[in-house]
Task: structure prediction
Amino acid sequence: MSAENGPSAGEYIGHHLTHLQNKPMAGVLDFTVFNLDSLFWSIGLGALGCYLLWLGAKTATSGVPGRFQAAVELLIEMVDAQAKSIVHNAESRKFVAPLALTVFVWIFLMNAMDLLPVDFLPLIWELLYAKAGHDPNHAYMRVVPTADLSAAMGLSVSVLFICLYYCVKIKGLGGWIHELFTAPFGDHFLLYPFNFAMQLIEFIAKTVSHGMRLFGNMYAGELIFLLIALMGGAVSMSFTGIALTIGHIIAGSVWAIFHVLIITLQAFVFMMLTLVYVGQAHDHH
Result:
């Protein structure tokens, strides 16, 4: 973000938390608005994740595996073991296990974008934007798709659709509709409205919490990185400036190391909840 005397702290954070959209300044409930930066990075990182998994399969040998092959094999074995312990239908696991692997790799890569310096890619985009003759103050670019609520909720809604598919596939359409009105309180016509309401609340609660958990953790991590970056912006030869610069380096390094655990854990939790919810769709009440 360009400014004659530099942006204020609020302007700096606000600029970094604004999405590149197809309709700038659109209303909150305008469903024709797309966060173009989230779409670009999520699709690009999804393609990268698929390529890495394909590369691991293509270069696999029966001899002593290299480091990359060993890492991929460990990841596949971990996901397969979790899938077997949660989804007991062997036919379903042929789709669910690769799905869980894809979910983990994809979300890990999207989360890992938070480890890049907060001004690195946005500054490149700002320079390109200015070179094209546009106002660099409107060169918005957020590079962590999972810190975008629409992207995180889109992932959780996709999991919901998969669960609904297996509810119908495993129980049959009639069996699933019957379950909607007879569980959890019992098969009595007076209880049908309460059963259906509880089932609806369960689906909504699982979907919202699934996406919000990922979004909340990644948004908070992104915000902390921005606050740490502000410390580094106070460079001067005064004692305060030197102290803030040293604090910026130490805090940034410590938080980045700790954040590696967070981005991995959030990818694992999202994957595990995906398996749990799909496994629950196979259960009969």
Remarks:
- Residues 9-281 form one domain.
